[in-house]
User: Fold SOGA family member 3 from Hypotaenidia okinawae.
Amino acid sequence: GAPPLPPLPAAPGGGRAPGHGEPPAAVPEELQREVEELRSENEYLKDELDELRAEMEEMRDRYLEEDVYQLQELRRELDRANKNCRILQYRLRKAEQKSLKVAQTGHVDGELIRSLEQDLKVAKDVSVRLHHELESVEEKRVKAEDENEILRQQIIEVEVSKQTLQNELDKLKESSLKRRGSREMHKEKKAFTQEDSADLKCQLQFAKEEAALMRKKMAKLGREKDELEQELQKYKSIYGDVDSPLPTGEAGGPPSTREAELKLRLKLVEEEANILGRKIVELEVENRGIKAEMEDMRCQYEKECLSRDHIASIPTSPYGDSVESATELRRHLQFVEEEAELLRR
Assistant:
């Protein structure tokens, strides 16, 4: 190896040399202040992002609860309408029998006409009421979807600004390192490497937690989708397809009302399934963002390893522990990448 460097001459006045025993020169005060401001702003944006996520989850839960309540009400109304239809079919058969008797005898029954008019009025009122209720439920659903879309756009904007600030912070760190001399950089390399390793460990832990949370979300969304598909199959098994003919017992009733109601039910269930599909796509996009962050972390580690290889010829450079920690962090990065790949599939 190269011979050790000779010690610097003592400073006048009996003081020690500025290069031995004293901490390396600090980053300029203005640069440190900018870095602190960017960090505080980054923390503020993180808190705001967490609040927006919590608010969006709360709105989604409230919307789902309201939707379930409306669905239960519509089911009860549907049961009542089915009962009324059966009653009207029974009365219609009796009226047909009476009309045959009137055709045979030539005598018109006024009570029968009044009864049929009353039944027709009741059926119209029930149909109008159900139509208004379905329109109100549809308006609430559209409003909730618009609010969710606005919150989603705000979250995306906050994420973009957070990434921009992070990139600026990294650039400031690199420029501050380049402004220092070669000896100062060699002396301070270990401290910066330990700080970066700690930051990367924290980021890896955060990525693991995000991956676990996304696995739970994907499992929950899968269960919800399965439940909706089972409910759709149940509707089809009970009421049949929309294009299927009416049963024999209901052939005398009007088919348009039942067909319209079944179409509305199927449409609601299919829209719920589409919403779940969009949420899965959003989770995949978030997964890709995490993978991009891990790629940046890997590039940063490769740069650090190249820097360590460059200064390995200096005997006073203690990097044995740092190389082991870098290897360990690479293994963690590989593991988190594999988990992200599985989630994306």
